[in-house]
Design brief:
Blueprint: E1 18-22, H1 26-37, E2 42-47, E3 61-64, E4 75-76, H2 81-90, E5 98-99, E6 104-105, E7 110-111, E8 116-117, E9 122-123, E10 128-129, E11 134-135, E12 140-141, E13 146-147, E14 152-153, E15 158-159, E16 164-165, E17 170-171, E18 176-177, E19 182-183, E20 188-189, E21 194-195, E22 204-206, E23 211-212, H3 214-218
The structure holds coenzyme A.
C-alpha cells in the first residue's frame, strides 16, 4: 500500500453502504463519528441492549445482536481484547480496514482487515498492522513496526522504529516502546509505561522503565 490507502465504505445485503458495528459504547460512538466524516450512508450498531442513540450521529440505527447474520462483514467496535476475540469467533466475516481521514499512512504500510485507525494517528513507512487491531486516537507507529492481530494501542501510544507488539496485546494510554523492543502476545503494557526491554508474552508491565507487576510474577508470567 502506497501513500494514503483508500478509506472504504462497507456494504451488506440489507443496507447500502452501511457500516455494521458490533458494540454500542464509547468506542463505537467514535467510530460512528469517523463513518460520518467519511460520508458513509449509515451505521448499524449490533448490541444486546438498546443504546442511547442520542450519543451517536443522526441516522445511526440499533439492532439486537441476536439478529445479526454471521455472514455479514462487521467491524468489532469494542475496546476489550477478550470480547473482541469472542465476537470475531461468533461473527467471522471481517470488513476492510476503517481509517480516519485525518490519519497519515506512510509508504509501504500494510493494514489488516477489520482494523480501525482512529483520528490523528501517524503510521510511518513499512509498518505492518494485523487484522482487527485498534490504533486509538493519536497513536504514532514508526517505520518498520509490526503489530499483531487484535491488539489495542490506546490513545497516544508511541512505538519507535522497528518495535513489535504481538497479537491480542494491550498497550495502555500514552505508553512508549523504544526502538526495536518486542512485546509478546497477550501482554499488557500499563498506561504511561516506557518499555526499554522485551516483554514476555502474557505478562503485565508498568512504570518507567517498565517492569513486570507483582501479580505477573505471582502467576509465573
Ligand atoms: C497496568 C494495568 C492494566 C493494571 O491494572 P490492574 O491489574 O487492575 O492493577 P491495579 O489497578 O490493581 O494496580 C496494581 C498496582 O499497580 C499500580 N499501577 C497500575 N497501573 C499502573 C500504571 N499504568 N503505571 C504505574 N503503576 C500502575 C497501582 O498503583 C497498584 O499499585 P499498588 O499495589 O502499589 O497500589 C492498568 O492500571 C493500566 O494501566 N491499564 C491501561 C488502561 C488504558 O490505557 N486504557 C485505555 C482505554 S482507551
Amino acid at each position: 500500500m502506497t501513500g494514503r490507502p483508500p478509506t472504504v465504505a462497507l456494504r451488506n445485503s440489507r443496507d447500502s453502504a452501511a457500516l455494521n458495528l458490533v458494540g454500542a459504547g464509547g468506542h463505537a460512538s467514535v467510530i460512528a463519528d469517523m463513518a460520518r466524516c467519511l460520508g458513509m450512508a449509515g451505521v448499524v450498531l449490533w448490541a444486546d441492549d438498546e443504546p442511547d442513540l442520542r450519543r451517536f450521529p443522526v441516522g445511526t440505527l440499533w439492532r439486537p445482536l441476536d439478529e445479526l447474520d454471521a455472514s455479514l462483514p462487521v467491524l468489532i467496535a469494542v475496546g476489550t481484547i477478550e470480547t473482541r476475540a469472542r465476537m470475531r469467533e461468533r461473527f467471522p466475516a471481517v470488513t476492510m480496514p476503517l481509517i480516519d481521514p485525518s490519519a497519515i499512512i506512510g509508504h509501504g504500510v500494510v493494514v489488516g482487515n477489520g482494523t480501525t485507525i482512529m483520528p490523528g494517528c501517524l503510521v510511518n513507512a513499512n509498518a505492518r498492522i494485523g487484522e482487527d487491531c485498534i490504533l486509538n486516537t493519536g497513536c504514532i507507529v514508526e517505520h518498520d513496526c509490526v503489530v499483531g492481530a487484535n491488539t489495542h494501542l490506546s490513545p497516544g501510544v508511541r512505538l519507535a522504529g522497528g518495535a513489535k507488539v504481538g497479537s491480542a496485546a494491550h498497550v495502555g494510554i500514552g505508553a512508549i516502546l523504544l526502538p526495536g523492543v518486542s512485546v509478546g502476545d497477550g501482554a499488557v503494557v500499563g498506561a504511561g509505561a516506557v518499555v526499554t526491554h522485551d516483554v514476555r508474552a502474557g505478562v503485565t508491565v508498568v512504570g518507567v522503565p517498565a517492569r513486570e507487576t507483582v501479580a505477573s510474577h505471582a502467576r509465573g508470567g
